[in-house]
Design a protein that fits this description.
Layout: H1 3-8, H2 23-26, E1 34-42, E2 45-50, E3 53-59, E4 73-78, E5 88-93, E6 99-102, E7 112-116, E8 120-126, H3 134-146, E9 150-156, H4 164-171, E10 177-179, H5 187-193, E11 197-201, H6 208-215, H7 219-230, E12 241-244, E13 251-254, H8 268-272, H9 276-281, H10 299-306, H11 311-323
Parallel strand pairs: 3-5, 8-9, 8-11, 9-10, 11-13
Antiparallel strand pairs: 1-2, 1-4, 2-3, 4-5, 6-7, 12-13
The protein binds guanosine-5'-triphosphate and zinc ion.
């Protein structure tokens, strides 16, 4: 994580206030705490999965203003029975392996972490109806590479259109893909999700709900239950929720209503690190070179002139680099 993120990260710990007593006396021990995972968050209340049970919880005071987000692995004390009306307390958030951020926008002026501990970003795109939007795919890929998450394209509605034209755009980047179609077999999708925590993103109408429901047969009931417990309607606009895939075959996090990622601060150096073969060629670049098309002395241009690199790959990388700018969606 870069320094700049620390400075703008409103989810991070506040510096503790001046203490009147020695720290050791203030800090209770939580030997009886158990592990849980955050399924969904709603107005300061958290639904956790604890030993297979759904447990409602709130943050405990020692967490201060530390954010707790979907995907977090937490330690919990108190009533973890999951019985109606029970409320446990989250006493610790374990270190996050990854975070996916959402850019500040008109609806919410603060950049926030929306999901943690996901290792794969699944971009769900219809091959037709609605038409694919490559720029949004590019922006989702930038978010994935920046977050050090593996990207996966799930191309739906293969019964309506041939995936080949779209795949041509992503082949040189080496982005893995699977296709689905109405009533089709999901073996390949399940294999790609197996053992991972995957965040699914996709625009309205691409078939994301259809996919989630096919993967998790009781998804509607589970999500409905989550919201019934929190007392909020089913159609919340920006909530994410985590679902276990059957037979322990991984986790998916659906992100209804999430329309933008935190791309504003994506560092070109971090992006190119996702492409080690290109990264290697930029060692002699001038300081601060973004490796973009208009850089006067970028070593990628030398490599292109020498024929040392696949031009499609450089072009695709530079397209991603440019996709960071502008546009609030994704
Ligand atoms: N032909 C075809 N239609 C599909 C496929 N998958 C989903 N659909 C249809 O596409 C429409 C949109 O599907 P949804 O699953 O509701 O899409 P969504 O991405 O969840 O959209 P929102 O609910 O608006 O966020 C529905 O009419 C589905 O029946 C597919 O593989 N092939
Ligand atoms: Zn360069």
């Amino acid at each position: 994580m870069s320094r700049r993120y620390d400075e703008t990260d409103h989810e991070s710990y506040e510096r503790p206030r001046r203490r009147t007593r020695p720290r050791t006396k203030e800090r209770p021990s939580y030997d009886d705490a158990v592990d849980g995972r955050v399924i969904t968050v709603d107005r300061g209340r958290f639904t956790l999965l604890v030993e297979g049970r759904r447990v409602m919880a709130m943050k405990s005071r020692p967490l201060g203003r530390k954010g707790v987000v979907v995907g977090d692995r937490v330690r919990v004390v108190g009533d973890v029975s999951g019985r109606d009306g029970s409320l446990a307390r989250i006493v610790e958030v374990r270190e996050r392996t990854t975070v996916l951020r959402r850019t500040a926008d008109d609806d919410d002026p603060v950049e926030r972490v929306i999901v943690s501990n996901a290792d794969q970003l699944v971009v769900v795109t219809a091959l037709a109806d609605p038409e694919p939007r490559p720029r949004l795919i590019d922006r989702a890929l930038v978010a994935a590479y920046d977050a050090r998450m593996a990207p996966l394209l799930v191309l739906t509605k293969a019964d309506l259109a041939d995936p080949e034209p779209l795949l041509r755009t992503y082949r040189s980047l080496g982005v893995p893909w699977v296709v689905t179609e109405r009533g089709g077999d999901l073996t390949e999708v399940r294999a790609a999700l197996d053992g991972r925590t995957s965040v699914l993103v996709g625009h309205s109408g691409v078939g994301k709900s259809t996919l989630v429901n096919a993967l998790v047969p009781d998804a509607d009931r589970l999500v409905g239950h989550v919201n019934a417990v929190t007392g909020r309607g089913r159609h919340t606009s920006t909530s994410a929720y985590l679902l276990a895939l059957p037979e322990g075959a991984g986790w998916i996090i659906d992100t209804p209503g999430i329309r933008s990622f935190g791309l504003a601060h994506v560092d070109p150096e971090r992006l190119i690190e996702a492409f080690p073969d290109l990264d290697e060629m930029t060692e002699e670049c001038p300081r601060g070179c973004s490796h973009g098309e208009s850089e006067p002395e970028c070593q990628l241009d030398d490599a292109l002139a020498e024929g040392d690199v696949d031009p499609d790959r450089v072009e695709s990388f530079r397209r991603l680099l440019a996709a960071r700018e502008g546009g609030q969606e994704y």
